[in-house]
Design goal:
Length: 341
């Protein structure tokens, strides 16, 4: 029996919450690939024969990754699933099953808890993935959200960070810096434009793009942009043992970011180093260009060439006039001092 007249988590308890969650998942109960979902000691799911199992985990901690006064709980639920699904996209995989660990303050009101779960489940549904289990505990210091996602991929399609080749072009999907600029403005006590705020609070995992690139063998190396363009490109360079040139004038920027940079050009660093775009950064050989153009049209998602991979070591901003400026492949790092909360 699901409580409807009570108002916070303490009044329904752990098992009341789990019952509530199962109720929300009624429409997914008949999935043939899921033998056991929520309710037993483990979930039990089937995997396509011969495919690799992809698994990734992300942690979202209140006042480190999000502030409850800046986000709706619905958007937070969506984002908790989305950032995890983005890791599956970055390998080129198909997302299938999620598990959700929650540390929750017991005074969390049920409307907020419901909004969080609805957001999480809507994001899972949009990805064709199913929440199959988790764990729920009381927290005395804010919300803790730990999400694990499992996906699958044919072994010969896996796209790693290490696959870059000299001469590859570097591409990025969508636009860069919207999320970081929204956060930057929030931290200064300003209200970001709605489109920017949405990109920060409710990012979109680029699952169709990742899958299409992997299936067609178009991408040599790929990563999702969570820590910032320069830092994440740095991971590709380190693991592919290559150098890169980036053309700052080629970076795809939204109208809002452009407008902001017109007033404050010094904030280009926010765009280059800021995190949480959840776009895909990938390298592809020059001959892939026509097929990438077709793919961008089919997915209605811009794919922009922003530079190239080269032999050697290092990262440069290369301008059309031929000038080269070395930059550090650094972005967000949790254990560095002076980073924003
Ligand atoms: P156990 O004692 O084996 O850890 P629990 O009593 O914690 O089991 O959980 C009961 C069932 O509810 C399990 O199937 C578990 O996966 C599921 N569950 C608990 N919390 C969550 C959650 N936050 N999200 C999804 N499923 C959950
Ligand atoms: Mg448990």
């Amino acid at each position: 029996m699901i409580a409807t007249t009570t108002h916070n988590l303490a009044s329904i308890g752990e098992f009341g919450f789990i019952a509530r969650l199962r109720q929300k998942l009624r429409d997914q109960a008949g999935r043939a690939d899921v033998v056991l979902a929520i309710g037993d000691d483990c979930s039990a799911c089937t995997l396509p024969a011969g495919e690799l199992l992809l698994t990734s985990t992300d942690l979202l901690i209140e006042n480190i990754h999000f502030r409850r006064d800046w986000t709706s709980l619905y958007a937070l639920g969506r984002k908790s699933a989305a950032v995890n699904l983005s890791d599956i996209a970055a390998m080129g995989g198909t997302p299938r099953y999620l598990h959700l660990g929650l540390g929750l303050p017991q005074d969390l009101v049920l409307d907020e808890l419901d909004a969080f779960c609805d957001g999480f489940l809507d994001e899972c549904r949009a990805a064709g993935a199913l929440l199959c289990g988790g764990d729920t505990c009381r927290s005395q210091t804010g919300m803790f959200i730990s999400v694990s996602v499992q996906g699958t991929i044919p072994a010969d399609q896996l796209v790693r960070r290490s696959g870059g080749q000299p001469g590859d072009r570097l591409y990025v999907s969508g636009t860069l810096g919207d999320s970081a600029l929204a956060l930057h403005l929030l931290q200064q006590g300003q209200t970001p434009a709605a489109a920017l705020a949405r990109r920060h609070h409710q990012p979109t995992p680029r699952l169709a793009l990742g899958r299409a690139l992997a299936a067609a063998g178009l991408a040599h190396a790929m990563i999702d942009l969570s820590d910032g363009l320069l830092a994440d490109l740095g991971h590709i360079l380190q693991q592919s043992q290559l150098a890169a040139c980036l053309d700052p004038a080629a970076l795809p920027l939204s109208v809002d970011v452009r407008r902001h940079l017109n007033h404050k050009p010094e904030d280009l660093d926010v765009v280059l180093r800021g995190g949480e775009d959840y776009e895909l950064l990938f390298s592809a050989p020059p001959e892939a260009a026509p097929r990438l153009e077709q793919l961008a049209v089919r997915l209605a998602l811009p794919l922009t060439a922003i530079g190239s991979l080269q032999p050697g070591e290092g990262l440069w901003l290369c301008r059309p006039d031929g000038s080269r400026q070395p930059v550090e492949a650094r972005g967000f790092n949790h254990f560095q001092s002076g980073q924003p909360a």
